[in-house]
Write a structure and sequence with these properties.
homodimer, 410 residues, alpha/beta, Molybdenum Cofactor Biosythetic Enzyme, Chain A, Maf protein, 3 domains, 5-stranded mixed beta sheet, CinA-like_C (chains A, B)
């Protein structure tokens, strides 16, 4: 079954908001076997919305829309869809009750909120349990269009609780199996060379994609067919061949983020963990703590942006700081030891670097980052040298620190 | 001038990668007066790419594409565009030299890298100084299509250095002026009510949008016309009226992120700053350090995920922890004082909460977060109560901590 997604809102087109809805929806739909064939973002203009809706309805079986359902003037999706489907807005007592419930204890009900109780007449209205804009489910010529609020948490709730279950009940779908192998130590093209024979001999039913990101290439195998178990077996057989070729360079086969892989390793080995961060500024800690349940292994961090904090809280000696500079192998080694001592953990990572855009020198240009990972008395270090811009330098340093820890703990 | 953006890649449609390119491009194009009217994401399939390209070329003056230029089999944008524009791939010695330069000291050159030196014959080839996939600039019937690599930093570099300057040289554009006012303390609909009269009296040349995000509503005024100074004057006059209505609730008028606003305040007042974080796990520090030059005011953080770290490094008394629990006003007050003492700063924020999904109790359900901001002996606290899911709870706590500090320093 083919799905198209349309996200509506001027803010998407002028780039003030990144459309994260469509990726989330794509993932959720894919998991249950729907194929998203196109995502379109359009402005809050009637003709542009109608144009996008009309061509999507021709290509796809299901069109899912988000956005343009807010209480303010610039939100026109509801009116536009009424025109497109030849219906009108009517007041829904049920939706109004829900709006009152949602807004209770938050703000005083106002006429704009009341207008959100106007819903298209000829459609199935799904009350939005977590927001004031209701979901409209239209059907026409065997095709389905669902309009949802653009607020991500409201969209996610309604997709999960209402839209996906209803779509699954409605269509009979081909089975789909994804398996994603995360590979380290290979740039994309070198990996493709290493896998040439394997790739050329992949069964017809399997599709392969290379997804490179910050030092890791994810290989995604997708199988489609009538029998899920058969497809899974075919996909897994290809995965076994991948292990024969790539061995320990395969980091993970569940498309888990690095912070989850690390978390599982720490839990399995019953180890506690801390970070000492300079240029990453807490980013490694934030990543580690994005995993629910991380309190089982993560105790905390010292973000030592100023040198005096490196000295006072992490006990990096002033001599080392002066002799080698804050961005040096010697300093990250003392930082990582200092983190384990101060936070009383079994292992730690430490990072110090020049994130940029300023602060570079000839000897240590912007992009230079030293990383250390330690488990007890064993310390590994690595150096990062290329400048990809401040944000990406930090992101790469974060990933490389976790990769170094993974190498150490393996 | 109308622009459409097409982003290519299976990974976007199945949601393994969020398309951040189009938002970045939309913002950059908008700043120089181009209007992005549509963004389309399609899979790595010839017919789907061709379909999207063909209709975009009909609607827009300029079509900008990213993605599908990698060295591997699944990348087919270059071949597809050759077919569409009726041309063929030829070997470019100049592009090959660039590829060799880029890959020097990184990996051994392989046949797939060499194939990246094949470029469309009838187009302007722009050598990509930061990557191996070159940029192709096609022209047909007075319209322009530019195909760029999908790797964000490569796209950004080529947009900034090559594509935007060339587009600006090529077209004469209407002037455009944006002004974005960030408003706190108002939910979207309440704000719309407060602004009804003002909004109804906006001049024709001005467009208004409401952009709510984590407790702040950004009001974006966009003016278009022939004379930039005249438009700016009209926009600013409306801004002045906004101040009359909203007063101190206007946080900022430059669409600056909160971390930049805070950074400017701290610099202006010559104050140093630190954070003590439990459930935000370093996220506030990471946000603060995303601003270049933050070392002028930011000294560091203690991420105290474990209670023993709250006690040992932040000197939160065990009695307070036991009596009130880690998620309490009393504890964040001791944390914020502990942060100022341990990191020797003038001010600090502290956060402790139940991010979820687990760990909630009847008294302190998931979503409960206590926040403190301190400047010397003055301490403000606030409490966050609604559960929006782990990631969003952390994001909101981060924002609310910075808003509390802003209130304190104002």
């Amino acid at each position: 079954m083919f799905v198209e997604i349309i996200t509506v809102g001027d803010e998407l087109l002028i780039g003030q908001v990144v459309d994260t809805n469509s990726a989330w929806m794509g993932k959720a739909l894919n998991n249950v076997g729907f194929e998203v064939i196109r995502v379109t973002s359009v402005r809050d203009r009637e003709d542009e919305i109608t144009g996008a809706v009309d061509s999507a309805m021709k290509r796809a079986d299901v069109v899912l829309m988000t956005g343009g359902l807010g209480p303010t003037k610039d939100d026109i999706t509801k009116h536009t869809l009424c025109k497109y489907f030849g219906t009108e807005l009517v007041f829904s007592e049920e939706v109004f009750e829900n709006i009152k419930r949602i807004l209770a204890n938050r703000i005083t009900l106002n006429p704009l909120n009341q207008a959100q109780a106007l819903v298209p007449k000829d459609c199935t209205v799904i009350n939005n349990k977590v927001g004031t804009a209701s979901v409209s489910w239209f059907e026409k010529d065997g095709k389905i269009l669902v309009s949802m609020p653009g607020v991500p948490q409201e969209m996610k709730f309604n997709m999960t609780e209402e839209v996906i279950p209803r779509l699954c009940a409605r269509f009979e779908m081909k089975a789909i199996v994804h398996k994603t192998y995360s590979v380290k130590n290979y740039p994309e093209s070198a990996l493709a060379i290493a896998l040439t024979d394997w790739e050329n001999n992949l069964p017809e039913s399997i599709k392969l994609a290379y997804l490179p990101k910050s030092g890791i290439v994810r290989l995604r195998l997708t199988g489609r067919g009538d029998n899920e178990e058969e497809i899974r077996a075919v996909v897994l057989a290809e995965g076994t061949k991948l292990y024969d070729i790539l061995g320990e360079n395969i980091l993970d086969e569940n498309d888990s983020p690095l912070e989850e892989i690390i978390g599982e390793m720490l839990k399995d080995k019953n180890l506690t963990f801390a970070t000492a961060e300079s240029c990453t500024g807490g980013n490694i800690a934030a990543k580690i703590t994005s995993v629910p349940g991380c309190s089982a292994y993560f105790k905390g961090s010292i973000v030592a942006y100023a040198n005096e904090v490196k000295h006072e809280l992490l006990k990096v000696s002033n001599e080392t700081l002066e002799k080698f500079g804050a961005v040096s192998e010697e300093v990250v080694k003392e930082m990582v030891i200092g983190a384990m001592n101060a936070l009383k953990t079994d292992c730690a990572v430490a990072v110090s670097g020049v994130a940029g855009p300023d602060g570079g020198t000839e000897e240590k240009p912007v992009g230079t980052v030293w990383i250390a990972a330690a488990h007890g008395k064993t310390i590994l270090t690595s150096k990062q040298v290329v400048d990809f811009g401040r944000d990406l330098n930090v992101e790469r340093a974060t990933n490389n620190a976790l990769l170094l820890l993974q190498k150490l703990l393996k």
